[in-house]
Every structure is written in C-alpha cells, then in structure tokens.
Specification:
heterodimer, A: alpha/beta, Rossmann fold, Arc Repressor Mutant, subunit A, 3 domains, five-stranded parallel β-sheet, three-stranded antiparallel β-sheet, 19 helices, 8% strand, globular, B: alpha/beta, 29 helices, 13 strands, extended
Chain lengths: 462, 665
C-alpha cells in the first residue's frame, strides 16, 4: 500500500508534533537532500524505507513545483507559509493547497512546547504571517443547501454516540437520588445535552410515584430570551392561575420565592436550563436570579453548560447558592437547536450580508423603497467604497454617521435628521446595514458586503 | 419544543410500569433498602455535625443576643446599636449565626424582635434596598401570625396609600405589633457600595427615633476598613461593638469531632478525606461546602456499593450480593488467612453457604467498626496527652484522622516523640497526665487499670519524698545529666554524667517507664491499618474518583479532550489511534468534523485564514465526499468552535478568524 504509506509520512512530516529521530528523516529534508544530490538516488543504500521516503519527497517536490507554477510571481513573495497550513494532506490533493508555500522560510515551532510557551510563540510579533487567500463566496452553503446536506448525511459514529448517551442514561437514577438529596446538577462537556435533558425529564416523570413533579424547561440559547420569559413561565406552575404578575423580573422572582416559602410544597419543582452559560443569560443579574431559585429547597435546578470556562461566571456566593454537583455529559450530538450554523459562520467571516440572499436581495428591497432611500443607499455604498480605497487598513471601515448625514443633506436626499433616521431604520430592519462604534466612539455605518458585491450593487443603483 | 424559550414539560408518553422494572435487577435491586440505611446513617451524622457546629459559636451568639437585649431594655442614645461580627471568610457562617439568633429568640420570646437579612444582591440603590427591607420585615412577621390577606398594604392605616419603600409602612407596622426591635443584618457588608451603605445607614438613623433598629454587620476584613468606607455622618449614627467568630479551621475540626465520635457505621478513608481537606484549604469554602462533600461521600458509598447493605443488616442477602462480598479483596485475604490457620471448615462454609457468609460478614464488620471506634478514641487520648504536655502543640483532628486512617500513625515520628517526651516528664506533669487520662476514660480496661495503679504508686512516692516543693525528675531527662568532654590521647570523648538521683527519682523513673510502655502497647493495639481489616471495603469509603469530578470539574479539559481525541469518548474502531506510535490521537478523516477542525485549529497561529483552513479541512476529510457535503461539515464545525468560544471574528484581515484558546492553558 504505497499510497497509504506516503500519507502517513507526509502527515508525520507536517504535523507539528515532534519525534526524536524521525524529525531528521522528514520527507522535506529528504527532498532537499535529493535535490542536492540528484545522482545519489539511484544507487540508494538498499534500504526500503529510505527509498520510499525519497519517492515521497519526489512527489512532494513535483507537487510543490506544480502549484507554484500556477501562481503569479508576486503572490509568492507576499504569502508566507502558515503554521495553520501545516496540515496533513494527501499528495494527490495538493492542487488546492495554499499557494506559495515556502517551508524553508517558516521556522517550525520548537518541539514539545508547553502550552504557555506555545501561546507566546504563536503570539510573538511577526508570527502571524498568513496567506491572503480568500474564501470564494459561492463555496459557503446557504440555509437550504446546508440543511439538505445535513439531512442527507449519515454519521458513521451514530452507534457510538448512542452508546455514549446510553452510558449517561445509566446514571439517571443516580442523578435523581442526588436531586432528592437537595443537590442541584450541572452538566458540561462537548455536544448538545438538550436531548439528554429531555430524556432525563421523562425518566424523572415516569419514576416519580404519586404526584408528578412540575418540570419547567428553559432553552437558554433561544435568541432574545430574557429573564422575564423564564420567570413568567416558572411562575405559571408556582403561582395560582389567576394571580396578577408584577412587571419587573425581580418582583416576579420575589413573588415566586415568597409563594414557595409560604406553602409546604409536596410537589417538587424542577427547573431545567439548557445552556445556562449562553450569552443571553450571562449577565450577573440573571445568574443571581437563577441562583436564588436554585438555592430554594423546593426547587431542583438542573443546568447544562456548553462553554469551557463557565465556572468563571459564578463567584463563591453564587456557587454556594447553586449548590451544584457537576457531571461530565459529553454527548457528541450536534448543537442543532442551539446554534444557527449558517448564520454563525457568516457572522464569523464577516459576511452577515448573505442573510439577505446576497446583493439580489438588496436590490429587491431597494426596489420597494422610495427614490430617496435608494439614493441614500447609493451614497452610502459609494462612500464606503471610497473609504476602503483611501484607508488600506480595515480597522476603520464604513462611513461615519455624521459624514453620511451631511452628504445626504447636500444631495437633497433628506432635509432633517429625523428624516435621515427614518430612512436608515428601513435599512436596519432589512439588515442591509450595520452600525458599529469605532475606537473613538463615533458611530459608523457599514454595508456588510464584500468589495465586489458592493461594486455590483453600485452599478445597479447608478 | 427545542426552539421555544421556556415551557412546562409534558411527557410524550407514559409507560411507568414498563420502566419500573428495568432498574430493579442486579446489585441495584437492593437500592431501596440501602437508601433507607443511608438516610438513617446520614441523619444521625448530620445531627451530630449540626450540634457541634452550633456549639462552636454558641458563646458569640449568646453575647450578641445579650447585646441586643440590652439595647431593648436600656435604649440610650439616638445612635443605633450595632454589632460588628468579625467572621473572616466563609460566606455562610454569618447567616447561620443570624438564623441561630432568630431561632433562639423565636423560641423563648413572644416575637417582639424581628430579624431582617440584607445582602448586596437585593438592590443596587437605596429605593430597592428599602423596599426589600420593608417587605422582608413585614413578611417575616406575617409568617408568624398568618391571618392577614395582603399584609404590606392592608395595615390599618387611614390616609393615602404609601409607596412601598416608605419607611412609614414599617413604622406603622412596628406600632401596631408593638415591636421592640428590628434587627437588620448585613450579610456581605463588603459587597455593598460604600456610598449606598452610608446612605442607608443615615436614612435608617433618621428613623431610629420612631423605629427601634439594631444592626448586625458581618465583616470579612477588618473594622478599620469598614470605618474607612462609611461616611462620617453614617458612623455618627452607629454605636458599635465587636464580636469575634471562631476561625474557619475550627469549624472543620468540629465536623471531624462529629465524624470521629458519632459512632457512624461508615468511615471515610484517607485519600477521599485528604481531597476534601485540600479543597477546603485551597479554595475558600464555607463549612457547609465541606459538610456537603462528606455527605456526598456517604451518598456515593451507599449508592454505588451494594455491599453497604450489610451495614444495616446482613439478613436476606441476595445471591449476587454474596457473590460480590466473596470477590472483595479483603475477603480473599481473610480466606487466605483462614487457610493458613487451617480453619478449612469455616472457610468452606463461608464459600458455600450464603447464610454463614452473612453471619461472618456482620460479625467482622461490627468488629471492624469497633476497632475503628477504638482508634478514634486513641486519637482523642493522643490529643489529651498533647494538651497536658508542656511545649507540645496539639495536632489537629483532621490531620490525625487522615494519618490514622491511612495506617501511618503507628510508628510515626509524632508518636515516638510523644512517648519519649513522656519518659522525661517531671512528676507534676505526670500526675496531671494520669488524671487527665483517667478522667477521659478512653483507654481500654487493662491500660486504664495500669494507669490507676501507677497513679497510686506515684502518689506514694511523692508522699515519701523529702522536699515536697521540688518535683521528681526522670533519669532520662537531659537536665539531670551533664555532658563532659575529656581529651584522651588527642581524642575528644563525650561522656554522660548523671546527676545524683534520689531513690524516689529512681522509683519515679520506673513508673514513667511502665507508663510509656503501657501507652505504647495501647497505641500499637488500637492504631490498626483499616486496610487490613476484613470487609473494610464495606465500612470504609475511600474512592477519589467521583469526588474530584463532581466538586472540582474541569470542563475545559473535558471539552478539549473530547475534541482532540474523540476516541476516548466514542470508543469507535475507526478513530482508534495507532498504538505504539505515540499516545496522542492522530488526525483522521473518520473523526467527527469538529474534532478534525479543532486539531487543525490547534496547529495554527493566533490568526487563521479561513480559506486555508477550509483547504486543509477538505484535504483531511473530503476524500470521498462531494464538496458541498464537506462544506456542510466545515460550516458546522466552524460554527461549533465559535459556539464553544474557541474562535471569534476579527477585523484585522479579510476572511480571517482569531484564535482565542490555547489548549492546556
């Protein structure tokens, strides 16, 4: 299986993990050596391994040469090889690799760095030389394509994941015991734990004899979730039906707690919070409210946490109130409900404009807007392009709010600031613009598209 | 349901009958009985702990209570009587003090005094604090007389309706119920905003003439610091007195006292206990946290160890339980020992008959428990001796416990030093020591008898000596011998020269020798290694494993491990790392997409080019799949990394993402 062997060797070479002797015999060095002594290849030592290595080296050389041949001359100079690009790849697939790789120029990281050293190594000045390749817009999938792919895909690990979940399910009785003993539970680990929680709720429900517990489930990841939603739902089961709720969350909590204090509760209340550490609920006030609920003896509190550093949310007092026992509930299940994949990736890569289905969507919206709105958008796009031309660094992108307003007034698009605001609001509603504060605190307006798309939009508008 | 914000859970289908049967087989079948045993054992233990804990600060509590009573009986100035409780760290110690006070008061008085606890979380401004203060005060009271429907507004006051932060409400209430004192306890004084606290104090100070307030401040730092933070005007309103609480270490000692002397059926082993102590020392935990951890040890022992059923009763043991008992390591050692002693019949009986096994088990367990109890009383004897001896510090119960349970105390330097010191004691110390030992009555009957006899002999010797003011000295005491250096043939020779000792001294030395011998043999007998006791697995719980994860989770490590070597969790054949090559898992196309991307991420620098990342990802995983399928995986993996907080958006360069976490940091 020569091909397999090659893969391994390449992987070995390019993996940053060091090995004692093998480092010396990496394919890369071999290839250099082979270059230096072209004649030596034939009368090889007879060692199979060496011969094979040389063959690999030859292949790599060819491939490198091939990919470099495709490059434009200047790009090679610009681009440095990245540590990131040092990933195992199949020799046969090298065509797609970042262009202009120059291994000799990257000092490979010293072997076996402890984590903190690695941090400083990777953050040292001048360390970050990444290529300027860009991801072509069309490769990223939209919502429809993505969900089609996800539905079509069958995970080979399905059975393993099921078995993993089964392990957790075996602990259900233990968890119930812990809850009954007055502890609260917190689950962490990689993978969505929502389904596990639902199963656990079913289990608790089925196992409890007599009056069934009242279980309230909160999905902390739901966009726009507020403490008020949580407390209102919880008060539905705690407070009598006809009681009028106060408006403030703190007051609702107060009402709930006093109600819980008043009555000797026979039926236990269970509050399950999925993603307690989600950004929606990360405010100290929200956590303090949860802690107060959790600390009450007739409330059993279950929470799942996804981020790796969630214990930092709570100080000693809060942690004491939560009274948690922690369990590792790694499930490896996809964060389907928790995470809107397409949106998140677009936001991560700064392409939130794709939400509108690209520039066609913008054109569609603009068509339905009055003339002066279209003019305003044109001005904005033109200004943004002009700004991008002037300032090469991307730190201050977009157009200043004031500047845009003055421009708009000059061109008789609007007569007052109120007018201007109304027009902008329309854009905001369709998520055609974003507004950010820059370092100095001035508001900047940005059309979240890439340069080519902006130019296309401008063409259409003019 | 998964997209709803919050909802009340409704079961999808109810099949309780079917589910019930699933878990009532195997060793867990006896869980019900064990659970009862647990409840019984822990409740006794909890009572013992509570008793000890409340007695620690009993003195302080009664002092504070007397102070408050005095403030009622002789109201002197316009200043508010203030108790400043120096609690040190430990969040909950104070609230328990206040609740102890409240309990004490409600027990012996007619409720003319009410307690309101304020924490900084109740409000960030004066209005909110006043509101919750008033609400709490009124609610507390109505909880006791419980007739009125809507207490805060339905006070029998004519006139305009008051705002809910108006202290007039409280004033009316105080008048109506003829309250003599409203105690406001500030639970976390340091956490209040200083201006806010000053304002509140001044405000309440203004009302002090109408509402009889008293304050309790719980401070963790120092009184100077409190004074510095308060405005001068606020300080003028206060008439303070300082109370000290026992330090947190004492509370741990009290818990140990309870653990050691309550005669509980279950003991905690050295390794789990040292974890608990370490955690208590390293992170500032309140004592409740420590008690919880002990409780969890009890829970795990009874839940996960089927043989704990024998602690309650060994009758009607199911067959599989007996089989489990026979598989215990200590039982095997015990069987070996029986073999060596040629007790073949007994051994055969144990192996074949479940009934006789049960009998032997319960016998051995009782014996083991008795031995451990003896060991604990030996520890308290040891502490007694240390108390009496001059220049000897008393070892904390916790460290003695851990040492003894790990079987290291016997033959330790601590014990040797102790016995050596005993041999050198002057006679007045010996008398005190013997009296203390006899009074404590913790030795076994033989040693007790010897001690009594020795005391008699000693008294005789003491009566017969010439100079009653001078205590008798032991021969072994260095003070009685002098070292002489002589030079003989150019060598220095050291020679001990004993001072002339009277006959009484010699007799006394003999007494001391016998005393130390008797103590030595006593300690040798009682300080057993718990690991040597048969069936120690049943009554000594010593597992580190659930405790560390349950109380000190390492979520970041768990996630990093899941992503870096998914095989550890999934245990699948496809992703198994090559053995022998190296320990760390290798990147492979079969791994979950997020794991692959995470490993690529680990290799990259602090800024990552998304396009290159995609290429690399495709190279690893996209062998047999079409591009859009691979892209779907890539997007999902990238989104998950972002969701977990490993990457974030960056504006520095186009199509780049920023690395946020370094593995293992």
């Amino acid at each position: 299986m020569p091909k397999r062997k090659q893969n391994e060797d390449v992987a070995d070479d390019e993996d940053a993990t060091p090995r004692k002797i093998r480092n010396d015999r990496s394919a890369r060095k071999k290839s250099q050596r082979t270059l230096q002594e072209p004649a030596g290849a034939d009368d090889g030592s007879g060692n199979d391994d060496v011969e094979q290595d040389e063959e690999v080296a030859q292949r790599i050389l060819e491939d490198d040469g091939g990919s470099e041949a495709e490059d434009d001359g200047d790009e090679i100079q610009l681009a440095e090889a990245t540590p990131m690009a040092d990933t195992p790849s199949k020799p046969g697939k090298l065509r797609g690799r970042p262009k202009g790789r120059r291994r000799e120029r990257t000092p490979s990281p010293p072997p076996d760095l402890p984590p903190h050293e690695l941090y400083f190594f990777q953050n040292r000045t001048g360390a970050n030389k990444t290529s300027s390749n860009t991801l072509p817009s069309h490769v990223l999938l939209g919502h429809d394509d993505y969900s089609a792919q996800v539905v079509a895909y069958k995970d080979p690990h399905d059975a393993d994941i099921k078995r993993l979940v089964q392990y957790h399910k075996r602990a259900f009785n233990q968890w119930m015991f812990e809850l009954e003993e007055g502890f609260n539970l917190c689950f962490y680990g990689y993978g969505s734990k929502r389904a596990l929680m639902v199963d656990f709720a079913e289990h608790v429900y089925a196992q409890t004899e007599g009056s069934k517990p009242k279980i309230v489930v909160v999905n902390g990841y739901t966009p726009g979730l507020t403490m008020k939603d949580v407390l209102t739902t919880f008060s539905d089961v705690v407070l009598p039906k006809n009681e009028k709720l106060p408006a403030q969350p703190a007051a609702i909590l107060e009402a709930i707690l006093s109600r819980l204090n008043e009555e000797q509760q026979i039926v236990p209340f269970i509050l399950m919070v999925n993603s307690l550490d989600h950004a929606n609920l990360r405010k100290p006030a929200a956590q303090a409210m949860f802690a107060q609920l959790a600390a009450h003896q007739s409330v059993s509190f279950l929470a799942t946490c996804d981020t790796p550093n969630f214990p930092l949310l709570w100080d000693l007092g809060l942690a004491r109130q939560f009274h948690f026992l922690y369990h590792d509930a790694t499930t490896f299940q996809p964060y389907k409900a928790e995470n809107d994949v397409v949106e998140e990736v677009n936001a991560l890569l700064g392409r939130s404009g794709r939400r509108l289905a690209g520039k066609d969507g913008v054109a569609y919206v603009l068509k339905s807007l009055p003339e002066n709105a279209r003019s305003l958008f044109r001005i904005l796009v033109a200004e943004q392009l002009a700004m991008a031309d002037i300032e090469s660094n991307a730190t201050a992108e977009g157009v200043e709010y004031r500047a845009l307003y003055h421009k708009a007034v000059e061109e008789f698009v609007c007569s007052s600031e109120l007018n201007f605001r109304t027009l902008l609001k329309e854009f905001h509603d369709h998520q055609m613009i974003e507004s950010r504060k820059d370092v100095a605190g001035t508001e900047r307006l940005i059309v979240p598209f890439r340069r080519e798309e902006l130019e296309a939009i401008l063409d259409e508008l003019v | 349901m998964e997209y709803g914000k919050a909802y009340v859970f409704q079961p999808s289908d109810i099949r309780p009958a079917k589910r019930r049967r699933v878990d009532t087989q195997g060793l867990q079948a006896s869980w019900r009985r064990r659970r009862e045993a647990y409840t019984k054992a822990w409740q006794a233990q909890q009572r013992a702990i509570d008793e000890r804990l409340s007695s620690i600060n009993a003195a302080t509590v009664s002092e504070v209570s007397a102070f408050l009573d005095e403030a009622i009986s002789s109201p002197q100035s316009e200043r508010i009587p203030t108790g400043v409780i120096l609690a040190g760290y430990g969040v909950n110690s104070h609230s328990s003090i206040v609740s102890q006070l409240a309990r004490r008061k409600s027990a012996d008085e007619d409720g003319r005094q009410i307690y309101v606890t304020l924490t900084s979380a109740y409000g960030a401004n004066l209005k909110a604090l006043l509101k919750s203060l008033i609400q709490r005060a009124l609610r507390r009271q109505t909880g006791l007389d419980d007739d009125e429907e809507d207490p805060p507004t339905a006070t029998a006051r004519r006139g305009p309706r008051l705002l809910n932060y108006d202290l007039q409400l409280l004033h009316d209430y105080v008048r109506e119920h003829k309250l003599q004192q409203i105690v406001v306890a500030f639970e976390d004084t340091e956490a209040f905003d200083s201006d806010l606290l000053s304002e509140l104090i001044e405000m309440l100070g203004c009302w002090h003439g109408r509402i009889p307030f008293a304050f309790l401040f719980n401070i963790a730092t120092s009184i100077d610091f409190l004074q510095q933070r308060l405005a001068r005007a606020a300080i003028k309103c206060l008439d303070g007195r300082l109370f000290d609480l026992a330090p947190a270490g004492e509370a741990v000692e009290a818990v140990f006292d309870a653990l050691m002397s309550s005669g509980a059926p279950l003991w905690l082993g050295p390794s789990v206990m040292s974890i608990l102590l370490e955690r208590q020392g390293d992170y500032i935990q309140s004592i409740d946290g420590f008690v919880d951890a002990v409780r969890y040890a009890y829970m795990s022992a009874y839940y996960a160890n089927a043989s704990t059923q024998c602690l309650e009763s060994s009758e009607n043991l199911p067959d599989d339980h007996c089989e489990a008992l026979r598989n215990l390591e200590s039982f095997r050692a015990y069987a070996q020992q029986m073999l060596e002693n040629k007790e073949l019949l007994r051994l055969k009986d144990c192996l074949e008959s479940n009934q006789s096994l049960a009998a032997v088990t319960s016998l051995r367990i009782t014996e083991g428990q008795r031995k451990l109890n003896d060991m604990m009383s030996a520890l308290s004897t040891l502490r007694k001796i240390q108390e009496v001896l001059p220049n000897m510090s008393v070892s904390p119960r916790s460290s003695l416990y851990v040492q003894a349970m790990s079987g290291k105390l016997h033959g330790s330097t601590l014990l040797r030093m102790l016995l050596l010191t005993i041999r050198k004691m002057p006679s007045h110390v010996t008398v005190r020591l013997l009296e203390a030992i006899l009074a404590a009555d913790s030795l076994d009957t033989y040693a007790q008898g010897v001690c009594r006899q020795l005391l008699g002999e000693l008294n005789e010797i003491l009566g017969s000596r010439n100079d009653p003011t001078q205590p008798l000295r032991s021969e072994d005491d260095v003070q009685n011998s002098t070292l002489r250096t002589t030079v003989v043939a150019q060598k220095v020779e050291l020679s001990k020269h004993k001072a002339a000792l009277s006959d009484q001294d010699k007799a006394y030395t003999q007494v001391l020798g016998r005393l130390s011998e008797v103590l030595e043999s006593y300690f040798e007998e009682t300080l057993v290694n718990p690991k040597d006791l048969p069936f120690h697995e049943v009554f000594v719980y010593d597992l580190k494993s659930p405790h560390r994860e349950v109380f000190m989770p390492r979520p970041r490590h768990a996630i990093e491990r899941a992503l870096a070597s998914p095989h550890d969790y999934l245990d699948c054949e496809c992703c198994e790392p090559d053995r022998g090559e190296r320990d760390e898992a290798t990147l492979s196309a079969t791994q979950p997409a997020t794991a692959v991307l995470y490993q690529l991420y680990l290799e990259s620098g602090s800024l990552i080019n998304a396009s290159d990342l995609w290429q690399a990802f495709q190279a690893v995983i996209g062998d047999e799949r079409d591009e859009s399928q691979t892209m779907a995986h890539f997007q999902r993996a990238l989104a998950e990394l972002k969701y977990l907080g490993f990457v974030k958006q960056t504006r520095k360069r186009v199509d780049h993402i920023a690395k946020v976490m370094w593995r293992g940091l």
